[in-house]
Amino acid sequence: MFPQELDEAIRNQAEFLIQYFGGPTAYNARKGHPRLRMRHMPFRIGLQERNDWVEVMRAALEDAAIPQAERPAMMAYFERAATVLMNSDT
Fold first, then answer.
1. CA-to-CA dists, residue 86 to 6, 8, 41, angstroms
2. What is this structure's pTM?
3. How many domains are contained in the chain?
4. Helices 47-63 and 71-84, interaxial angle, to 10°?
5. Which domain, by its residues, includes 55?
6. Which of 1, 72, 78, 80 sits CB 3.0–4.6 Å from 57 for a disulfide?
7. pLDDT at residue 50 in the model
8. Within 10 Å of residue 73's Cβ, how many Cβ atoms?
9. Average pLDDT of the chain?
């Protein structure tokens, strides 16, 4: 799903999440409205991909030492967003 070079994907996700959780709007300034479904539509996202991504994000919160008090809100967002982005039953 991801290109060989990840710098742009990492920047996009970081800026989007910073903005979503109340930080500066650098993502919108650079890329415009997120349009997450549109941007993810070219990729088959089924239940397995959804669950894999949610688990990667759970591990990322741990790796980044995000405070325990902040994690439930972030995980709730990740789970909702991952479900909305599903576009395949397989």
1. 22, 22, 9
2. 0.88
3. 2
4. 160
5. 43-90
6. 78
7. 97
8. 10
9. 95
**Contact partners, residue 40, CB within 8 Å, separation at least 6:** 85, 87
84 residue type, one letter: V
Structure tokens at 20: 């979503």
Residue 29 banded pLDDT, cuts 50, 70, 90: very high
Please report the pLDDT score of residue 65 as a whole number: 97
The answer to whether 78 and 71 are in contact (CB under 8 A) is: no
Residues 79 and 49 in one domain: yes
Residues 50, 85: contact at Cβ < 8 Å? Answer: yes
CA atoms within 13 A on the CB side of 73: 9
Answer for the pair 17, 32: CB distance below 8 angstroms, yes or no. Answer: no
